[in-house]
Design brief:
11 helices; mainly alpha; two-stranded antiparallel ribbon
């Protein structure tokens, strides 16, 4: 565990050194977030509430979903894929720790840095401009923090799994891009899933994607309580374990067929 946390710390330090990129990403998140607020307010058309979500809740949804972009690396993450194509995977596999844990530590450091520098800053900017909602009790905050950790774990496990396609194809970038695009639509990133047709919501929940953004938002807004809240957190944990297990199995198969030119 000491090596795991040391790798996470180094990844955190590396991420915070990219100050210009962080500021640029934050500005972009805020700009597009404001556009999304305008679209949602237009959809409300003067109504105070839609499907249990108030106007303030809708604005908070845009803030949370924009804040999740960097934390969950929602638009791209091809580091494992790149290491396979450059041959660095050979050295990584020889490191004195599990390969999945190695990348998990690195992604955890990146995610924590993004959470502190971009996500919290963006939420503060929204709170300064709009009347957004917040969890109303310590229990709700605790549930949100747990959902936040599980959403990252589900996200990492899925992204790692997608990157393993590099073991079977000389260019898996197209597979990765398609997978990320699907996640945007099925996770509740563009629109709360409560606003969408029931058949589409059921389709979404056949995938792990709603357990990243949508669950996070619904826990924060207090839309899930009691048994429904516990069930949502349990489903997040189940998906995380299932994806991690699938990643381990697929990694073993990939390593067996791995050929690195020159050695």
């Amino acid at each position: 565990m000491r090596l795991f946390w040391e790798l996470a710390r180094l990844a955190f330090q590396r991420q915070v050194t990219y100050r210009a990129a962080t500021l640029a990403g934050l500005a972009t998140n805020i700009f597009f977030g404001l556009l999304r607020v305008a679209v949602l307010l237009a959809l409300y058309a003067g109504r105070s509430q839609v499907e249990g979500i108030s106007v303030a809740g809708a604005i908070t949804f845009t803030a949370l979903s924009q804040a999740a972009i960097a934390f969950l690396s929602m638009f791209s993450w091809y580091e494992v894929m790149s290491s396979v194509y450059t041959g660095e995977v050979a050295a990584d596999l020889l490191k004195p720790m599990n390969y999945v844990a190695f990348w998990m530590a690195r992604d955890l450091g990146r995610a924590l840095a993004s959470l502190l520098l971009r996500s919290l800053t963006l939420m503060a900017a929204y709170a300064f401009v709009f009347d957004i909602t917040h969890p109303r009790s310590a229990g709700q905050w605790l549930a949100f923090l747990l959902a936040l950790a599980l959403s990252w774990l589900v996200s990492f496990s899925w992204r790692f799994l997608v990157n393993l396609a590099a073991f079977w194809t000389p260019n898996a970038l197209g597979i990765g891009r398609l997978a990320f695009i699907l996640s945007w639509f099925l996770s509740g990133f563009f629109m709360p899933l409560r606003f969408l047709p029931e058949w589409f919501v059921q389709l979404c929940y056949l995938t792990p994607f709603p357990h990243t953004v949508n669950t996070l938002v619904e826990v924060y807004l207090g839309l899930l309580e009691g048994p429904a809240l516990l069930a949502a957190l349990l489903r997040q944990a189940i998906w995380a374990v299932a994806l991690l297990g699938a990643g381990q199995l697929l990694l073993r198969a990939g390593v067996r067929r791995l050929v690195i030119l020159g050695g």
